[in-house]
């Protein structure tokens, strides 16, 4: 029985989908005004693996993740560079795809963009106005929080406390400090769309309510994202959607804890971030994924170069064991899921992940098995473990998968470059020989000249 912690109730609950066998999930995606960072990769990797796990458990998963492609931060960046806001968004969406591919994140079924849903957003806001939940002031539209009785239910806050803590920013024309913008009238030089309230653009929260309900329905199974989004973003999404449709918006809310760097949330706006590009170059996707899975998704995780380096060493060690086995035994199809040993391991894996997606426990099981594989002399047991890691558990977490063809090609190419380098050295062209060594080194492939010839590691 799959159980997940639902932020709405604060409890670990049995997961029961609306439609048997099918799970509809919405994950808040990035605001595209800069490179995505390792902190952003936490929800991406976590919910990618969670989706794979649901599929492993037999569900058909429908996953939507948005791109916020219009926002104050995008407009500021565009003005700094003197380019169109959409050009900024486009640039970082392309970068997002490169990074996700490098991290082994499967594309969602839907990747909606805010600017493609402006008509639907206007329609949604108009309906909120008609139903008495929103009001217009000089071309801005605000959600009237006091009209929605369950406001604060998700973030477990009281409206009185929120009113005391909130303030009206200069330029905002809302009636009450806790109200929030659904539509912002365009200021001089800002991109805008025409609307019944004049030229303007959507506020921050409305887009997710619109895209999620348009794609997944007025009520769907799981809404996910980082815990930093619980308030105000998710609280507001929930209020808008439930006010409009008069029914539950998302049944389960899952939130990942923050990745911290030097004690603070890793964040684009604070500037304390490591880009995915740099991290992948240094540690590779499996070490990063393992690092993320090493902590329960709800707990905070501290960025640690030592931990990433340790995970990289572990990945290399495990891959070496698996590759050695492939070479010596071949990938023989003698695997049966019905043997008591294999059945027991699968049960343990499911037990760990069924328990609020406990990846540290699942990963520990995988490493236990690898150690057993090294210790045992039993060929059949080795084969069973080999298959459990490579073909059963690895693909669920998106790690340690077999990429034989690619690595065989890389082996061949590195050997070819070593031969060419040896010829340069023979001709005393040390400059070119060093160039080959240095370029390979930059790619993470280290050459070592030994009395037995040149060896390499990567
Ligand atoms: N440090 C972090 N750890 C874990 N998840 C994060 C972290 N920072 C952002 N996220 C998550 O990444 C996703 C994309 O968020 P977003 O684009 O707003 O990034 P951000 O870096 O927080 O931006 P900003 O710096 O402007 O707040 C969201 O689900 C968000 O909760
Ligand atoms: Zn959102």
Calculate Rg over CA atoms. Answer: 26 Å
Question: Which compounds are bound in this model?
Answer: adenosine-5'-triphosphate, zinc ion
What proportion strand? 5-15%
CATH topology of the largest domain: Rossmann fold
CATH architecture of the largest domain: 3-Layer(aba) Sandwich
Global morphology? globular
Describe the structure.
The chain is an alpha/beta fold and 458 residues long. It folds into three domains: 3-256, HUPs (Rossmann fold, 3-Layer(aba) Sandwich), CATH 3.40.50.620; 303-400, Anticodon-binding domain of a subclass of class I aminoacyl-tRNA synthetases (Four Helix Bundle (Hemerythrin (Met), subunit A)); 407-457, no CATH class. The chain contains 14 helices and 15 strands. The longest helix is centred in the last third of the chain and has 25 residues, at 305-329. The radius of gyration is 26 Å and the shape is globular. It binds adenosine-5'-triphosphate (ATP) and zinc ion. Zinc ion binds next to loops.
